[in-house]
Amino acid sequence: MGLSTHVLDTMHGTPAAGMTVTLYATEGSTALQLKQFVLNQDGRNPAGLLLDSTELKRGTYRLVFDVAAYFKAQSVALPEPNFLGQVSLDFGVAAPEQHYHVPLLVSPWSYSTYRGS
Questions:
Q1: 2 Cβ partners below 8 Å, 6+ apart?
Q2: For the chain, what is the mean pLDDT?
Q3: Which residues share a beta bridge with 27?
Q4: CA atoms of 52 and 29, how far apart (whole Å)
Q5: DSSP states of 90-113 as a string?
Q6: How far apart (Å, rounded) are the C-alpha atoms in residues 56 and 96?
Q7: What total of structural domains would you count in the chain?
Q8: Please, how many CA atoms are within 13 Å of residue 10, restricted to the half-sphere of its CB?
Q9: Coil, strand or helix: which one is 31?
Q10: Domain span at residue 51?
Q11: Which CATH number goes with the domain that contains 42?
């Protein structure tokens, strides 16, 4: 199955094309960067899965979404400092044989996530 993400810009009602996302494997306070990518026109990783079924392991992970840079690139007038700079989502994978989809719904002032399918 594997790991995937999808980001929707709820301010504009569009996918968050151009947002930079970084994936880490975590263990306690240690984080190892696994990959960094820029979302495509559909708000997804252009390469497809972030980790495929052979790469996804039981453990903890972190996705970091560069929200402020994305909205600045969209010419949204943001206060300094920004309310949201980077959104960091820490999550666990208990059953790596299942699919883990971690979507983000985001505006400059709020975000929501869930385990999708």
A1: 49, 50, 51, 52, 53, 55, 56, 99, 100
A2: 97
A3: 30
A4: 25
A5: EEEES-TTSEEEEEEEE-SS-EEE
A6: 6
A7: 1
A8: 11
A9: strand
A10: 2-113
A11: 2.60.40.180
Phi and psi, residue 74, nearest 5°: -90, 5
The residue count of the chain comes to: 117
Which long-range contacts link 29-38 to residues 24+ away (Cβ below 8 Å)? 31/62
pLDDT in tens, 30-52: 999 999 999 999 999 999 999 99
The dihedral sign for the CA sequence 100, 61, 57, 3: positive
Asked whether the CA dihedral 84, 47, 99, 54 is positive or negative, the reply is negative
**pLDDT (0 to 100) of residue 12:** 97
Residues of the chain below pLDDT 70: none
